[in-house]
Design a protein that fits this description.
This protein has three helices and no strands. By secondary structure, the chain is an all-alpha fold. It has one domain. The protein starts with 55 loop residues before the first helix and ends in a 21-residue tail after the last helix. The structure holds iron/sulfur cluster (2 copies). The site of one iron/sulfur cluster has 11 residues, from loops. The site of one iron/sulfur cluster has 10 residues, from helix 2.
Length: 106
C-alpha cells in the first residue's frame, strides 16, 4: 500500500486552479477557475483551516498522487484539465466528473 500523499507546502494549486461554487468568506459567489482564493495567505495556506466557514468542498479535497504529482505545475495542469472535463455544459470532449478525487470543488 503506497504511503499517503501529503499536501506540498506552498503549492496551493487546489486553491487557485478549480472553480468553487460555494460561498467563501470574501467571495460570496464562490471562486472562478484560475483565480486564487482570497483566503489564501502569503505562504499558500488557508486562513480558514479548521474554521466552520471553510467550504465543505475544501475540507473534502484530499491530496492524491495523481493530482498533486511532483510539482505545482503538474497539479495546476491536472486540476485545469479536471475543470474543463467537469464543466457543466459546452466542453468539446468533456467527460463526467468521475475522475474527481473525492471532491468536486465546484
Ligand atoms: S495539488 Fe496537492 S499538494 Fe497542491 S495544494 Fe492541492 S493537495 Fe496540496
Ligand atoms: S477556503 Fe481555504 S482551502 Fe478553500 S480554496 Fe480558499 S484558501 Fe483554499
Amino acid at each position: 500500500m503506497p504511503a499517503p500523499t501529503l499536501c506540498r507546502p506552498g503549492c496551493a494549486a487546489c486553491c487557485i486552479a478549480p472553480s468553487i461554487s460555494s460561498p467563501i468568506p470574501g467571495m460570496p459567489q464562490g471562486k472562478p477557475a484560475g483565480v486564487p482564493c482570497v483566503q489564501l495567505d502569503a505562504d499558500g495556506r488557508c486562513r480558514l483551516f479548521g474554521h466552520p466557514s471553510r467550504p465543505a468542498v475544501c475540507s473534502g479535497l484530499q491530496p492524491a498522487a495523481e493530482m498533486c504529482g511532483s510539482s505545482r505545475a503538474h497539479a495546476m495542469q491536472w486540476l485545469a484539465r479536471l475543470e474543463i472535463a467537469t464543466a457543466p455544459a459546452g466542453g468539446s470532449a468533456g467527460q463526467p466528473a468521475a475522475a474527481a478525487t473525492g471532491s468536486a470543488r465546484g
